[in-house]
Amino acid sequence: MLSGLGYEKDLDGQLQKIAPTYTYNAFDGGDWRDAVAQTAKDLGREDEWQAWVDQYEARVADIRARLDAADIHPVVADMGYYEGQVTVSCYGVPCLVFADLGLEMAPLMNATDEGLPASDDYAELSPEQLGQLEGIDVVFTGANEDGTVWVETDDALKQNALWQNLSFVKDAQYHPYNYEMIYGSPSGQDAFLSVVEKALLG
Hints:
Blueprint: E1 2-3, H1 11-15, E2 22-23, H2 32-42, H3 46-69, E3 75-82, E4 85-88, H4 93-100, E5 104-105, E6 123-125, E7 138-142, H5 150-153, H6 155-158, H7 161-164, H8 167-170, E8 174-177, H9 186-201
Parallel strand pairs: 1-2, 3-5, 3-7, 7-8
Antiparallel strand pairs: 3-4, 4-6
Helix pairs in contact: 2-3, 3-9, 4-9
């Protein structure tokens, strides 16, 4: 049994009562690929892991080449909305994909060049602070279970002039994705890469 919940100190012992386990912490703020590469090595699945890495890197190279050819170089951000505040952060797969593609991430994301959080801090903007989002060209954000997106449905934002004047709002340059993609996995990384590819290249 594979478990990425290594931060739950008592869980591994409980899981071992069900089946042999391999446990690691998938939520330590690092690149999930490092932990999975080690897992593949430990479990004798290095060939399968390398096959995924090769196909992913080939897709990234292809998308980067097409972005360069079309001179598409937007400032991007991963954005959310919670209790009346807009959040901007670097967490999980989206930030890693942005970095892999060489996209410029908004400073508010507080990201390293490798697509990792520079610190535990993230931006929480009140309605009066939304002007700080100027300069962001394209936004990616999680969609609700029913497919709706807070960018379109929140009444307070509809009435906020600062929000409505942002270019990515006026130009509808916000692109929803399934929240499950943000947790590190080959399928999540591939899926989010497809979301960005479609958003930027059609």
